[in-house]
Write a structure and sequence with these properties.
This protein is an all-alpha fold. It is built from 17 helices and no strands. It has helices spanning about 1-10, 15-30, 35-40, 45-60, 65-75, 140-145, 145-155, 165-170, 180-190, 195-200, 210-230, 235-240, 245-250, 255-290, 295-320, 325-350, 350-384. Helix 10 packs across helix 16, helix 14 (about 255-290) packs antiparallel against helix 15 (about 295-320) and helix 16 packs across helix 17 (about 350-384).
């Protein structure tokens, strides 16, 4: 590794010829050292030369994704070849003596040269120090002597930016935006764009832990609100006078009953809500994958919780409003289906039809299972 570090320091100082010699020796000794290959590519003067080196690297190390990706990037950067059109023929003119020229009159405008064949991966000369195409312009920094370049580098060590091919391919992907819980809920409920829903799922804090936390909090809130909906219900007084209820709780007052019910609801609703989300996410994840989805359990659980948590709270709050609240709750239930389809599309990149199929599949399976069960139970009776 010390040889590689020495070569990297030479490249940073602009002494690429010296670095190339070290890297050639290192690669011959360790053909599988991909990092050395990428630094060797940085010493090449042209895109064509870099492509040739990476092709040799890929031949000696087949199946390396980083090398394949780097080759594709460089091939996309290769300039398009233009066809050469010869000038129109002209009548001969008397020869005029001119001083001899060192090159053809078209050498200054022709940018393309024949491609060099890719050397054999095992030939001793597959490293060629001569660039396939010389650099068009030599910068002032490259014209300085090695001592001057090293001095300039030592005076400003922070000015170097690692632009090696390996560093470009190894850069982490941009981190998604971080959403507060209310921002995520508002984006999911009010935005019709599936891409905006998917952006919520790319939150760095997204995961099953946060999904279950949301569901637990929404269950506690709805558990606290539900007893209030009983108090505003005109049938609640008749409910308290029922003999069955008195047989269970005895002659307790309304206030005591509401306190007991509130404690039970705030304890049981969050537990059953978390269990329901875990089961629902597992079933929908398996079905989504069978329909060609590319998501995972954590992603679908977070997508479901992002709309189920606020919908649960809204449904409980609307239950306090007599008559009108029930109608609004029914509409909210229909919108709940729309949000489920959108959650499947965002979490598993499914089409609308496939997402609807995932939702209907459990119903179809239960229906078929029920029919088979009825047939199996009915056969013995028919035989009698």
């Amino acid at each position: 590794m010390s040889n590689l570090n020495d070569a990297i320091q030479l490249i940073r100082q602009g002494r690429k010829d010296e670095a190339r010699q070290i890297l050639e020796t290192l690669i011959r000794a360790e053909p599988g050292n991909i990092q050395a290959w990428f630094w060797y590519v940085d010493t090449c003067a042209t895109v064509e030369k870099r492509i040739q080196v990476l092709e040799v690297c890929l031949k000696m190390n087949p199946g390396i994704a980083q090398v394949t990706q780097a080759l594709q990037i460089l091939r996309d950067q290769r300039p398009a070849r233009t066809s050469f059109t010869p000038p129109p023929a002209q009548s001969p003119k008397p020869a005029i003596s001119q001083p001899p020229q060192s090159s053809s009159p078209y050498s200054a405008t022709c940018d393309d040269e024949p491609e060099r064949p890719v050397p054999s991966a095992y030939s001793p000369g597959y490293f060629d120090d001569t660039p396939a195409y010389p650099p068009a312009v030599t910068s002032a920094a490259q014209q300085q002597s090695p001592g001057e370049q090293k001095k300039a580098w030592e005076e400003d060590p922070d000015s170097y930016v690692d632009t090696s091919m390996l560093s470009k391919l190894s850069r982490p992907k941009p981190v998604g935006r971080s959403y507060a819980f209310y921002e995520a809920w508002m984006a999911v409920l009010l935005t019709l764009d599936v891409e905006a829903y998917a952006d919520v799922l790319n939150d760095p804090e997204a995961g099953t832990g946060r999904a279950f936390e949301w569901i637990a909090y929404s269950g506690i809130i709805s558990g606290l609100i539900f007893p209030l909906s009983l108090l505003v219900n005109p049938q609640f007084a008749k409910l308290m006078d029922m003999p069955e209820l008195k047989g269970i709780f005895g002659n307790i007052g309304t206030t005591t009953f509401i306190i007991i019910l509130t404690l039970a609801m705030t304890l049981l609703v969050p537990i059953f809500s978390i269990i329901g989300l875990a089961i629902s996410a597992a079933i929908q994840n398996l079905l989504a994958i069978s329909f060609g989805g590319n998501g995972n359990y954590s992603r679908i659980a977070y997508a479901l919780a992002a709309y189920l948590a606020p919908i649960t709270i809204l449904s409980a709050a609307l239950g306090i409003i007599p008559a009108v609240g029930q109608c609004l709750t029914s509409l909210l239930g229909i919108y709940n289906i729309v949000l489920n389809v959108r959650a499947l599309r965002a979490s598993h990149s499914l089409s609308t039809g496939s997402a609807i199929g995932v939702m209907l599949a459990p119903t179809v399976i239960i229906f078929i299972f029920g029919c088979v069960l009825v047939m199996l139970v009915g056969l013995p009776n028919m035989s009698r």
